[in-house]
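Kindly inspect the following:
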Amino acid sequence: MLPSLLRPLARWYQKKVFGKMAKLGVRYEDLLIENDDNQKALSWQDSGTIAMRDRRIKRAIDLSMKHTYLPDHVAAVQDPGNFYLADAVEEAKSLREEREYLNA
C-alpha cells in the first residue's frame, strides 16, 4: 500500500531533480559520491566517456559559480537520466563482494 502511494511523489521528485540537473548539464552518475566501486567502474570506461564526464562537471561548476543556467534550448536536450555507469558499478561491486567473500 505504502509504495503505491509514494510512487507518484517519487516520480515528481525525480522530475524536479532531473530538471535542475538538466539546467546545469550534468547526468545523475556524474554526481555520485566517489567510492572504490565507482572508481573501478570509471577506470573501465573509454577515454571519450571520461572526457565528456569531466567537461559536464566543469561546466556545471562554472555555471553554479556564475549563478546561471544553460540556455533553455540546450537544457532541453540534456538527459540526466541516461545512465552510462550503472552496469559497470554493479559489476565492480559484485567483483569486490566476491573477492571479500573468498578472502574471508
In short: The mean pLDDT is 92. The chain is about 70% helix and 0% strand. The first helix runs from residue 2 to 24. The two ends are 40 Å apart (CA to CA).
